[in-house]
Amino acid sequence: MAARVRALEMILSEKGLIDPAAIDVIVDTYQNKVGPQNGARVVAKAWCDQTFADWLRSDATAAIASLGFTGRQGEHMRAVFNTPQTHNIVVCTLCSCYPWSVLGLPPVWYKSPPYRSRAVMDPRGVLEEFGVTLDKDIKIRFWDSTAELRYLVVPMRPAGSEEMSEDDLCTLVTRDSMIGTGLAELPR
User: Looking at domain 36-179, which of 3.30.1490.100, 3.90.330.10, 3.30.450.40, 3.10.20.310 is its CATH number?
Assistant: First the structure.
């Protein structure tokens, strides 16, 4: 596959249809500048810094931008915090609106019609398919992501992580936990 990609890139470049430098910038962006590692940084900072958590809760767009994560479908953000009483899940019922700057490219299942409809109609069942079983008394709230507003779920900080550094906490935050279809990992 890699050889085919290189051959195709070379042919398109020779024909003047693409600029290899522009391709390198795009690849670097998706490998190093956007993705769930950015969202994990936001969540870990919120877990460690109550002032930042409060800011994230009141103006997620500005709080996230303060860490350098902007644009690419994340221009207008809202953070929703999981609590012992409420679990949040994000869905785009219309298409696949997704905050690329903090979560990277959307997974295939996020864009699928079955996820988009069932997350609204049967969120508990969808979560169970992702391996998340919640007590019956926990309220599940879904948030409909739109072209105007995208959501980031701040999962609950896992027990046993109290002494971990912000950098180490980032390793506990998964893409799925920031969509609401997963939980933060437990410390090892």
Answer: 3.90.330.10
Q: Is 80 exceeded by the pLDDT of residue 32?
A: no
What is the pTM for the complete model shown? 0.85
SS3 content of the chain, % helix, strand, coil (to 5): 45, 10, 40
Which residues are annotated as catalytic?
Answer: 92, 95-97
> Is residue 30 scored above 80 in pLDDT?
no
Buried b (16+ CB within 10 A) or exposed e, 47-85: beeeebbebbeeebbebbbeeebeebbbeebbbbbbeee
